[in-house]
Design goal:
This protein is mostly beta strands and about 200 residues long. It is built from three helices and twelve strands. About 10% of the residues lie in helices and about 50% in strands. It is elongated.
Length: about 200
């Protein structure tokens, strides 16, 4: 029997988010795969300022925490992906370029950091992280959780791993004008994040 759920974001912790000297913005993509007959997937994107190894509570009103209000008619999977950090000054420019390219001209403004972007997002953004990688913004964590129609209301921690080795570089110039490259490596299968979601049946 089909059942409708609210799926909300409670918090995110990333062990290594890809920043070097400043706090960055991570973009997090949530995707429900085959939640109901005829729907391949539905996706939502959240931008959050995250710090290394610190749980960040998504401090919003209940309705603003909602990732999905979705009818589910059989077992499905919630898949979560997190990008390396983006400089806050570059977030809107980069995401607007990528999303407009993926979904067409339907998006003219990227909401500010901390807002949920869900309008028009569906299977057309399946290669979202491939596009981010063109700007050297890589996926640093991914994970999934099964959702079924017989679930009770609950709060679920979902562990995410780094799917492949990620090498991040920062270029700066010293007082003599020499280029100094700082490198960070996040190893493959490293347990790099935990996302806590809330599932409420309607």
């Amino acid at each position: 029997m089909a059942k409708e759920f609210d799926i909300l974001l409670k918090s995110v912790r990333v062990m290594e988010n890809g920043t070097f000297d400043e706090k960055g913005v991570n973009t997090i993509k949530f995707t429900l795969h085959y939640p109901e007959s005829g729907t391949k997937q539905v996706s939502t994107i959240v931008n959050m300022e995250l710090e290394d190894n610190k749980e960040t509570i998504y401090e919003k009103e209940w309705q603003d925490k909602m990732l999905f209000r979705q009818k589910i008619d059989s077992d499905c999977v919630l898949f979560i992906e997190i990008s390396s950090a983006i400089k806050k000054s570059a977030v809107e420019k980069i995401l607007l370029k990528i999303l407009k390219g993926l979904v067409g001209a339907g998006i003219d403004l990227i909401p500010s950091v901390g807002k949920i972007i869900s309008s028009s997002l569906n299977d057309e953004i399946s290669n979202y992280f491939d596009e981010l990688a063109k700007d050297k913004i890589y996926k640093i964590a991914e994970g999934s959780f099964p959702i079924s129609t017989n679930m009770d209301d609950c709060t679920i921690p979902i562990n995410l791993i780094c799917p492949k080795e990620v090498k991040l570089e920062s270029k700066k110039y010293d007082a003599k004008g020499n280029c100094v490259i700082t490198t960070k490596i996040i190893p493959k299968d490293y347990g790099n994040a935990m996302v806590i979601i809330i599932i409420d049946s309607i």
